[in-house]
């Protein structure tokens, strides 16, 4: 894989994951849920920074990403004996807690005896060089830095995702796939304006080559092909298929021109181009360059991607499940590398298709996918109470195990191809 292919893969991967996670991120923020970390990639951290109460990280393995929201499942709990370097604000509240006590920095050392960072927002312990227990108030917006140097904000119960109303959680979980669909529309839009022209596969003649069979038969630009040898055609592809069947044989065309129906006879010619035999009559499909046509083309293109992916997902379950129907990060890298050799337009088309694929796959009702979370939220909304904790935990655990096994098997399969 050359440097161009690597760059193309990183851009495509970054956009797919970045848009998806940004959807969760921005809706969670607007819903009052604390986003503790926004990560692109998985595994060891290679870059991080902290801004506006969120840690942003770039991680080593390009196999996904995540938005880590404040949650009851991840309470800020401190153990007795833990040591921090604390910094107080002007009100005397703890505003910074740093686990890296072996490094120089501002503040003072504090050894924890007990703490409540969920409701009371206090921590009790021993200040450096003092023997008496002290209880300190922790600011609602206090930050904590772990041993890896990743900074996150302390999360009281009011900032947990579980504290948000059901309808807000539904929006948060749907926002990721929705952003993938938006990315696909953007990719289709850029693609439509990047092309010299667009066409809609209409059975309408756009160009007629001089001295070729069609011109000799009197075919003109704007003619609409209604039938070939009595066989009705619905698209330019239908028309082309009928032409390629009849080398050196006359074709009877029924055309529409300015509201009139005409009959034309044309004989395709067999020629050789670069060693390949071709049957042609010297016409091209009608194309468009105006902005409205390009917008229409982008919407139709997006719809085609949805149809392709939807049929693929349907075939995955209805046509018999097979690991060979799945692709993982390795397949993504290979496919992007191939597309990069064909140019910017091909990469754009691949980005749009993959974005629709990521969005629809994530809507499958399988925890921990977004669709699985939406399913559990809907249960809570319908029955006015959360699904039993054991059920949610069991479904999420089983779904996670299934996805991990599938990822391993798909990766092995992709590496072997």
Q: What this model shows, in words?
A:
The structure is a single chain. The protein is α+β, with helices and mostly antiparallel strands and 417 residues long. It is built from 9 helices and 16 strands. The protein has a 5-stranded mixed beta barrel with strand order 3-4-7-6-5. A 4-stranded antiparallel beta sheet has the order 11-10-12-13. A two-stranded antiparallel sheet has the order 1-2. β3 and β4 form a beta hairpin. The longest helix has 29 residues, at 166-194. This is Zinc metalloprotease. Keywords: Hydrolase, Membrane, Metal-binding, Metalloprotease, Protease, Transmembrane, Transmembrane helix, Zinc. The chain crosses the membrane at residues 6-27, 170-195, 344-366, 387-412. Its EC number is 3.4.24.-. Belongs to the peptidase M50B family.
Major sheet size, sense and barrel closure: 5 strands, mixed, barrel
Q: What's the tally of helices?
A: 9
| Backbone shape | elongated
Mean pLDDT: 91
Question: What is the multimeric organization of the chains shown?
Answer: single chain
Order of helices and strands: HEEEEEEEEHEHEEHEEEEEHHHHH
Structural class: alpha+beta
Radius of gyration: 30 Å
- For the termini, the CA-CA separation is 15 Å
| Low-pLDDT segments, ≥5 res | none
In which order are the strands of the major sheet placed? 3-4-7-6-5
Helix content: 40-55%
Q: Provide the β-strand percentage band.
A: 25-35%
Number of strands: 16
């Amino acid at each position: 894989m050359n440097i161009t292919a690597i760059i193309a893969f990183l851009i495509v991967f970054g956009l797919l994951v970045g848009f998806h996670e940004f959807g969760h991120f921005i809706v969670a923020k607007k819903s009052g849920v604390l986003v503790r970390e926004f990560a692109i990639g998985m595994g060891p951290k290679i870059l991080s920074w902290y801004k506006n109460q969120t840690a942003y990280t770039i991680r080593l393995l390009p196999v996904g990403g995540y938005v880590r929201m404040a949650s009851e499942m991840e309470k800020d709990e401190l153990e007795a004996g833990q040591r921090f370097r604390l910094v107080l604000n002007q009100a005397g509240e703890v505003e910074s807690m740093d686990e890296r006590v072996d490094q120089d920095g501002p503040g003072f050392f504090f050894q924890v005896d007990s703490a409540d960072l969920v409701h009371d927002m206090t921590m009790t312990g021993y200040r450096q060089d003092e023997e008496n227990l002290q209880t300190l108030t922790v600011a609602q917006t206090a930050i904590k830095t772990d041993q890896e140097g990743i900074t996150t904000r302390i999360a009281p119960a009011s900032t947990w995702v579980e504290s948000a109303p059901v309808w807000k959680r539904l929006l948060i979980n749907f926002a990721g796939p929705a952003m993938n669909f938006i990315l696909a529309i953007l990719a289709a839009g850029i693609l439509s304006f990047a092309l010299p022209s667009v066409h809609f596969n209409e059975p309408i003649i756009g160009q007629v080559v001089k001295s070729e069979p069609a011109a000799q038969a009197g075919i003109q630009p704007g003619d609409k092909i209604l039938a070939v040898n009595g066989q009705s055609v619905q698209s330019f592809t239908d028309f082309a298929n009928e032409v390629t069947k009849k080398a050196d044989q006359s074709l009877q065309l029924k055309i529409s021109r300015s509201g009139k129906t005409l009959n034309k006879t044309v004989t395709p010619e067999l020629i050789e181009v670069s060693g390949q035999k071709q049957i042609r009559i010297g016409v091209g499909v009608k194309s468009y360059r105006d902005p409205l046509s390009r917008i229409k083309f982008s919407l139709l293109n997006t719809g085609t991607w949805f149809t392709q992916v939807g049929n693929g997902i349907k075939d995955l379950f209805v046509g018999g499940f097979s690991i060979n129907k799945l692709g993982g990060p390795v397949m993504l890298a290979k496919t992007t590398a191939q597309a990069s050799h064909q140019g910017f337009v091909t990469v754009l088309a691949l980005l749009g298709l993959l974005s629709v694929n990521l969005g629809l796959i994530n809507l499958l009702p399988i925890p921990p996918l977004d669709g699985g979370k939406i399913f559990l939220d809907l249960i809570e909304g319908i029955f006015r109470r959360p699904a039993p904790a054991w059920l949610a935990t069991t479904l999420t655990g089983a779904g996670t195990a299934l996805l991990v096994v599938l990822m391993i098997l798909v990766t092995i399969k992709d590496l072997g191809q």
